[in-house]
Amino acid sequence: MTTTIMSRGNSPTASYIDQINQDNQRHFAQTAAFSTQPAIDELANAWEECSTSNWDGYDAFPIKEETLNYAYAFIQALPLGFPLPSVSAEPDGHLALDWFRDPHWTISVSMSPEGILYYAALLGNSDPRGTEPFLGEVPERLLNLIKEVALAKN
Question: What is the DSSP letter of 27?
Answer without folding.
Answer: H
